[in-house]
Every structure is written in structure tokens, then in C-alpha cells.
Design goal:
Elements lengths: L5 E3 L2 E8 L1 H11 L4 H22 L5 H33 L7 E7 L3 E5 L4 E5 L5 E4 L3 E7 L2 E6 L6 H10 L7
Antiparallel strand pairs: 1-2, 2-3, 3-4, 4-5, 6-7, 7-8
């Protein structure tokens, strides 16, 4: 059970219990939000458009436009399915990587955000995060274009605590 944020001598502490389902949901959530994800989606869409032209040619009638859109959409969907298939080995390896799944304790400190796991003790200094994202279900702290700390909404005692933590970590983002 998630302990949520608590006051610890003026510091915010959030205990996260990360699961494989969290990682899967995170990957779906971050895909359209990260520059790498948008580049991947653009590549899938571009390949779909090129394939649509290759299959249908330049559409001249409404029926050809529909056929072209269907071909482009189908190829784009295949690309996304391939992306999801490539996640499977990542998930398999994740369960064997110490410190990735399980308990993560995040503490907002004077120096920045500290993350403690069974395998790591990391400090992200203020201004040291690559990017910050928030969805309805997660706070995502990017340490590089493809690496993120994932804090599920359920780790917070309330929506107000979720919002307060989000506001408190804004100085992490590089300017």
C-alpha cells in the first residue's frame, strides 16, 4: 500500500510502489509527450503516408482518398503495435533489474529531489531534470530524453497532495 506524501521536518516524502502495469501505462502516456516519442510517432505516420501513396498512388477521387487514409492508418497502427511488442522484452528485463520495480522513496530536499530504492540513492539537483510531465495518472520526471522517474497518482494521499508535489518539483526542470 502506498504511504503517500508526508511531512518530514518540512520536507515532502512520497513512497511509490512501482509495478509492471505502471511501466506499461507510463510508456503509453509518455509516447506523445516526449520529443523521442513524438519523433517515433512522426516516423510511424510518415511511413504510413509513404505506404499509402505506394499502395493507392496520388488519390484523385474521394474513394481513393479514403483508401489512402485507411492504408496510412493501418501502417501507422502496425508501427505502434511493433513498438508495443518491443516493450515486452523491456518489461521482462525490468522485473530482473534491481531497484526498478518495487518501493521508491522520493524526498524533496534543500538540494533537490532524492530517490531511494533498494539498489540506488539518487539526487536530482534543482535545474537538473531534463523534463517534467504530468498526466491524470502520473507525475513523470525525465532525467534524460528516454529515462523517467514515474510517480503514480495513487501514491499520493489526495489530489491536493498530488498537485502540491507537482508544484514543489517545478524548479527541477532545466531552464
Amino acid at each position: 500500500m502506498d504511504a503517500g506524501p508526508e511531512s518530514n521536518a518540512g520536507r515532502q516524502v512520497v513512497t511509490v510502489h512501482l509495478t509492471l502495469l505502471d511501466l506499461f501505462r507510463f510508456n503509453l502516456a509518455i509516447l506523445p509527450r516526449s520529443s523521442w516519442g513524438r519523433l517515433s510517432l512522426g516516423a510511424y505516420l510518415g511511413f504510413g503516408i509513404v505506404t499509402g501513396f505506394a499502395i493507392v498512388g496520388v488519390p484523385a477521387t474521394f474513394r481513393e482518398v479514403l483508401a489512402w487514409l485507411l492504408a496510412a492508418a493501418a501502417v501507422t497502427m502496425v508501427g505502434l503495435i511493433v513498438f508495443c511488442v518491443f516493450l515486452v522484452p523491456f518489461f521482462f528485463l525490468s522485473s530482473r533489474t534491481p531497484g526498478l520495480l518495487g518501493e521508491h522513496v522520493f524526498t524533496i530536499k534543500h538540494e533537490g529531489l532524492r530517490e531511494e530504492t533498494s539498489a540506488n540513492d539518487t539526487l536530482i539537483r534543482w535545474g537538473g531534470a531534463h523534463d517534467l510531465h504530468r498526466t491524470d495518472g502520473f507525475i513523470l520526471i525525465g532525467t534524460s530524453p528516454v529515462m523517467f522517474h514515474v510517480l503514480p497518482r495513487r501514491s499520493f494521499a489526495s489530489q491536493a497532495a498530488f498537485e502540491a508535489f507537482w508544484a514543489a518539483i517545478q524548479p527541477l526542470k532545466r531552464q
